[in-house]
Amino acid sequence: MVSFPYHDRGVVDTSASPYTRLKPVPIHAVRLRDGFWKPRLDANMRAGMPELYRLLEEHGVVDNFRRVYGAKDVPRRGYLFTDSDLYKWIEAAAFVLQSQDDPEIRQRMDEAIDAIIPAQREDGYLNTYYVDERYDQRYTRLDTDHELYCAGHLFQAAIAHHRATGETKLLDCALRFADHLCQVIPNIPGAFSGHPEIEMALVELYRETGRARYLDLARHLLNAKGFAELQKIEGHAVRALYFCCGGADYYAETGEPAFRASLERQWENLTRTKMYITGGAGGRHQGESLGKDYELPNARAYAETCAAVGNIFWNWRMLMLDGEARFADVLERTLYNGFLAGVSLDGTRYFYVNPLSYDGEGEGDPWYPWARRGPYERQPWYDCTCCPPNVARMLASLPGYFYSTSQDGLWVHLYDNNDLDWRLIDGTRLQVSQLTRYPWDGDITLTVTPAVPTEFTLHLRIPEWADHASVTINGRSTDVPAAAGQYLALRREWQPGDQVHLSLGMAPAVMVSHPRVAENRCSVALQRGPVVYCLEAHDNPGFSVLDAQLDPTGEITSEYRGDLLGGVTILTARGVVPTRPGTALYRRWQAEPEPTRPVTLTAIPYYAWNNRGPRAMTVWIREWRP
Amino acid sequence: MVSFPYHDRGVVDTSASPYTRLKPVPIHAVRLRDGFWKPRLDANMRAGMPELYRLLEEHGVVDNFRRVYGAKDVPRRGYLFTDSDLYKWIEAAAFVLQSQDDPEIRQRMDEAIDAIIPAQREDGYLNTYYVDERYDQRYTRLDTDHELYCAGHLFQAAIAHHRATGETKLLDCALRFADHLCQVIPNIPGAFSGHPEIEMALVELYRETGRARYLDLARHLLNAKGFAELQKIEGHAVRALYFCCGGADYYAETGEPAFRASLERQWENLTRTKMYITGGAGGRHQGESLGKDYELPNARAYAETCAAVGNIFWNWRMLMLDGEARFADVLERTLYNGFLAGVSLDGTRYFYVNPLSYDGEGEGDPWYPWARRGPYERQPWYDCTCCPPNVARMLASLPGYFYSTSQDGLWVHLYDNNDLDWRLIDGTRLQVSQLTRYPWDGDITLTVTPAVPTEFTLHLRIPEWADHASVTINGRSTDVPAAAGQYLALRREWQPGDQVHLSLGMAPAVMVSHPRVAENRCSVALQRGPVVYCLEAHDNPGFSVLDAQLDPTGEITSEYRGDLLGGVTILTARGVVPTRPGTALYRRWQAEPEPTRPVTLTAIPYYAWNNRGPRAMTVWIREWRP
Questions:
Q1: Is the peptide bond before A375 cis (omega within 30 degrees of 0)?
Q2: Domain co-membership, A270 together with A347
Q3: Which residues in B12-167 belong to E strands, given as ranges?
Q4: A261 and A342 part of one domain
Q5: Which residues fall within 8 angstroms of residue B56, CB to CB, at 6 or more apart?
Q6: Rounded distance, CA B86 to CA A184, Å?
Q7: Lower CB density within 10 Å: C or N end of chain A?
Q8: Are residues A386 and A443 both part of a single domain?
């Protein structure tokens, strides 16, 4: 087993995984420059994460550890899975520190780790819920609770911490717990993790340490729920997606064909019947679940932010296997839309549920006053705190998702201003810099600088949405056709300073969905590049966006507005609204169309909605059929 | 206060209610002859109710009473509201006995009553959940549980039993409990009923006894949740609808204008934004609730059978106020569709949830195995048993919903073969018989036989759906225009044997819904007379009904099929299905229509679906727009 030194390991370290073609580029090798993502990562690091840590302290999440060993005499607070929230925060901090030093983040991370470690028991067990009078209940509710889920998040935090600092204090703690679990879990008949997460963490722990027992335990837990036999992706969205991450990680190490087949079945089922156009997943509030095929309501979308993170995680792992662009397409779709909507522009408030339509109203329930909802706005804190630190770790690790290497060269997955300083697999140092206004503009200039002239393949991702794509090298066009939904393989002897210019067509696209998606019939959505749009009431005065109808044959214009919502390209389209909206709920069909008046529809990126107060919004717009 | 003798009181006794124009006709005065409803009432009485009683015994619901006073040494079983299930069964039995003697039903009803009464405490309190170690908790969870709800069902059962038999044993028991509540509840700050029901029961108890304190307690409970201030109908569907029943009953006695205004606001909100075309209500599984305005998903409809019963109850009470036909229209819509779908054709299996679309599939959840659902079929029993006995009491009492009287004459609300033997308010004996094939045919012949020639008004309901209506008296047309959605007032001196022939246009209607109902856009539903139709896979081989598109400009033909589903009129329409259904979930909009092939669509009444095994079904059909 060959693996990089600790500081050169990627977010997911497939460097020695036999069944992955793509190998990781570590976070530190990619320095974002000012562009689309850097302000968001900065807001996460400077505003979101410090505030989140403060709230974790305020809500007793850190004290839940301190009380175990008597450092605080307070009752335990919060859900039984609060440990995982702190672990995720530490993992996010470690990803930040893999990019750059930040004394404040570093200090809080150390504080948190120092609060955690003494809570570990002699036998390696570590969980703040199953202590005192509940200690005897450990391992008795694996099927329904989050005991192993918390362990998994500890392992991931410890791995990220080790990769950031080279320190082993949290990793040693994690390994003691993992070793303990390797002894205990296989002896509990039927044991599985009620909320998957530990499966992918165990495989990564195997990658980090080379200890096969962790891979064995991952297999044990995957098989306990029949991963290889699953025909569809069903049930709780985050659990199902995390489980697929574990299955993909396991396949990357073992190549077991039944796992690959199951991954394909579930991926097809998700992307053909259960995924929002935003990449969000989870059509049903009940059980936070995926629902049935084509069950994709808009106002009642669940589309938990954590599910978007899970969808990115899973597609990244699938992409690593063979470098198939379809996985990168879903990853990018989710990243710019379903995921990014989960956090406010200032980086401090979070959506748990991400609807694709909103009527601007709250709602009441005289019988369950606690069910009074709305207005629907992002919150700085949820008692079930899973989403905010998931946003934090996803953003902090994002530089690690831009590039990969393979035996034949370099892969470019994401586009934004950044400088890569890394090496080809043969060890040749390679620098690449990107210059672009992506995602507002499809022109990207990549300057490729190997240390010495070197023959290798530059795999450039041509997104599925690119209505045309062309590429020049040092100003001369290439004869390789640049087809959408593929990686364009440019093989040549690259000279230091070679310039590749990629032009991706970003004409606004009018999208429709499969007619089985009941709510989207006769409706269209706007997309430009990777960005999915919505109509929000703020930009559309004088009518309700829920009544608006868009003429798909009309011109749709784009305009960059630097002053709006942190800088966005808006779209304007031709549409109509009814002049006399009816009030009858049911009436006889009439051949005559309803009378309408023309309006201009103004669309903003979906991710930016609800940053100016909660007002009506819709992604899917009725199609105008005159 | 004037009231009829016990055996002449209606289902809801508005005979002395000052703010009702319409006065009840008791169940016994209406004898159904073979037609649409009689076989269903017979199945309910002969098959459904005996089996349900057996299941109530089997699941310990009756023993829950016996154990209180030591007649059975068994633990209490079931939800905290099981008492109400037995009360509802008794009420149903009493309605049956108001129609006809039935020794078997009578014996079981007496058995049940004899099991209940000894469980009453000295102070009048009666509830099998708040006993033993929970006795001290009585009245501590009024806001969230069903303590007063159970009391309300006891009162209703007792009233129906008294009206059936003249016996007072259960009524005395109810009055002792009610008197106790009148003392206790007003002294509990903020007390209200977490699940409404008792409010309407208390008003009826006031009507039964003339004791104002029951009306006062009803007012107290209605005001505790601000009935008069409610702006919308929101929250748990059954609770909200039962609460409106209580509000309407209270208004009928007091005429308080703020209650009438609240009833109007809630009724408008329900019927314009929250009611299925079937009359079902409850668009959200979460909280079994009504959801937001226009939140009416089809496959995920909740539309609990109890909510349909509640909608019938409420509209009946509204109808009594002034005789406005809009209330009868909603009542009939709900009765033939949303309610009737709740029970199988053989009368022994029940839906709790009534979807308007079904894909024929079950579903799984690897993380919550208990959430594995389907195939979706009617069940003989639910642990939450509210719906089956609600079906039983609704069917058993149905003869009481056919007619009313008013100062000026007789009102005919429902059409089916039956003989009325009752009297006008002035005491003149009046017999009416209906001869019809309704709802399959719109021709109804009414033979009107007053004991002596008498001038009065015959108010004939002209349903909202009647595309034309005409009436003749003794073969001669009348000059009164018969407008849809009104009661046609025929005033004359009626002679014994006068024949009225009413002809209601029943051309199949293609219906659409308000465009804010997201799932129904560009879709149509078929309705003929009061019956809403659906496509079920059984009748549509060779394609999926979920892919079918209906041409609303094509002819729709009707055919009565006596051999099918107990005898139904089926509809056939021209439609198409896609020749190459796409698999992509999202794609670019195209101007060209998808290629299709013509098919014949066969629709059956919605109420009859899922009586031949659970297969795909849809009420709303995509509109074909070539």
A1: yes
A2: yes
A3: 23-24, 30-32
A4: yes
A5: B62, B85, B86, B89, B385
A6: 50
A7: C
A8: no
Residues of A in contact with B508 (CB under 8 A): none
Between strands A469-473 and A454-462, the pairing is unpaired
Q: Are residues B461 and B571 in the same domain?
A: no
**3-state SS of B265-304?**
HHHHHHHHHHECCCCCECCECHHHECCCCCCCCCCCCCCC
Report the distance separating Cα B336 and Cα B605, nearest Å. Answer: 9
Token readout for A89 is 């925060």
Mean pLDDT estimate for chain A: 96
pLDDT digits (tens, 9 = 90+) for A479-526: 888 899 999 999 999 999 999 999 999 999 999 999 999 999 999 999
pLDDT tens figures, B16-38? 999 999 999 999 999 999 999 99
Residue A312 placed within a domain = yes
Spatial separation of the C-alpha atoms in residues A214 and A207, rounded to whole Å: 9
The answer to whether the Cβ–Cβ distance between B365 and A235 falls below 8 Å is yes
Calculate how close chain B gets to A63, using CA atoms only, in Å. Answer: 30
- Picking from B490, B532, B479, B476, the residue whose alpha carbon sits closest to that of residue B509 is B532
Can you tell me the mean pLDDT for A122-136?
96
Structure tokens at A165: 């600092």
Q: B512 pairs with which residues across the strands?
A: A587
Check whether residue B448 and residue B496 sit in a common domain: yes
- Is the pLDDT at A567 greater than 90? The verdict is yes
Residues B145 and B132: their CA atoms lie apart, in Å, by 18
Question: Is some CB atom of chain B closer than 8 A to the CB atom of A284?
Answer: yes
Whether A412 maps to a domain, the answer reads yes
B residues 569..588 contacting A (CB < 8 A): 578, 582-588
A490 and A590, same structural domain? no
Give me the pLDDT at residue A3, please. 61
From chain B, pick out residues whose CB is under 8 angstroms from the CB of A366.
225-226, 230, 234-235, 239-240, 243
Q: Is residue A414 part of a domain?
A: yes
| Residue B477 C-alpha, separation from nearest chain A C-alpha, in angstroms | 28
The span from the CA of B589 to the CA of B605, in Å, is: 35
Indicate the length of chain A as a whole number: 626
How many Cα neighbours within 13 Å face the side chain of A64? 25
Q: How far apart are the first and last CA of chain A?
A: 65
Enumerate the residues of chain B whose CB falls inside 8 A of the CB of residue A277.
586
Predicted local distance difference test score (pLDDT) of residue A5: 87
Instruction: Name the residue range of residue B614's domain.
Output: 509-623
Which residue among B236, B514, B519 sits closest to A518, beta carbon to beta carbon? Answer: B519
CATH of the domain at A441: 2.60.420
- CA gap A83, A98 in Å, rounded: 23
pLDDT band at B407 (very low <50, low <70, confident <90, very high): very high
The complex's ipTM?
Answer: 0.96
Residues of B in contact with A584 (CB under 8 A): 272, 514
Strand partners, B568: B561
**A215-237: pLDDT as tens digits:** 999 999 999 999 999 999 999 99
Query: Are A512 and B583 an interchain contact pair (Cβ–Cβ within 8 Å)?
Result: no
Tokens of A409: 């060269």
Instruction: Kindly give the interhelix angle for A237-254 and A305-322, rounded to the nearest 10 degrees.
Output: 20
Asked if A579 contacts A596 with a C-beta cutoff of 8 angstroms, the reply is: yes
In angstroms, rounded to a whole number, what is the distance separating the alpha carbons of residues A17 and A320?
10
- The residue among B210, B225, B240 that closes a domain is B225
CB B413 within 8 A of CB B319: yes
Q: Which residues of B touch A525 (CB under 8 A)?
A: 586
Residue B1 has pLDDT above 50, yes or no: no
Q: Is residue B370 part of a domain?
A: no
Q: Quote the number of domains for chain B.
A: 3
Q: Specify the pLDDT at position B372.
A: 76
Task: Give the angle B210-B215-B220 at the CA atoms, nearest 5°.
Answer: 160
Query: Are A589 and B195 inside 8 Å of each other by CB?
Result: no
